[in-house]
Design goal:
The protein is of the alpha/beta class. The chain contains six helices and 13 strands. Helices cover 23% and strands 35% of the residues. This is Spermidine synthase.
Length: 271
Amino acid sequence: MDFAHIVTLPMENFKMDGSIFNIRDEAIRHLNGSITIERQMTIENFGSRIVASMHLKIPEDLKGNSLDTRKLSANHIQITILYLKAMIAAPFVTSTFGNSSEQFSSLSIGLGIGIINSFLHDRFTNINITIIEIEKTMVDIAKKYFGLIEDDRQRVIISDGMKYLRENKKLIFDAIFIDACYSQFKDGLSCPVKEFCEYDNMNLIKSNLKENGVVIVSLLLTSPKKTAEVLVCGGKNFPDEETFKAKTTKVFEELGFGSPPIVTEDFTMWY
């Protein structure tokens, strides 16, 4: 352990999809005197395990031991969760998000607290971002506690993901992120929700991709075996296994993500 003191500050509890969610701030004073503060979301159905978190920006002129964390803004650039690093990195690994002078578009199905889209929005000005989230409560929480904003480069649509795609078949994207999850395991499955495991629906998603587009799916299940992976699916220009592994390491370094995940032969990133 490298910390000397931890303080947990409850912020809000809310109910959604039959589950109790908790928002809290955790402040850590490390042995070297530095401080980190993380805003966390837990779900009681998962044993109060942290399911999402963001670091908060610490004032440079911090003095004394008193700090109102409610006034701190979220740090969208510092990602703490490995599977989300893998999802963000994927379009860069496949060169889908290539030349910085070009304009790209992304679709996120499932908002969570907004980690993927907020990173892309704050780090890159050439990515047009659309987010589909079925729960308005989640959108409100992301705005209130995690700094989600809507502007001319980022918008949130409250809708069912597949319904949105069926009604907007002419829309095409460079990257589609699927991080739509149940708040509890259902028949051994948490991510993605079952609709995104159906063949016809995956074909529909494919039709909403550009030629060099990529789909990134978060997988979390306990049956038939425990699996926690990010699945990356692309088109004809998809890199071979060795290139994929090498580019994953390079992209992780460029994005400031540290050590990359383990990449398997079926183009999943294991975490």
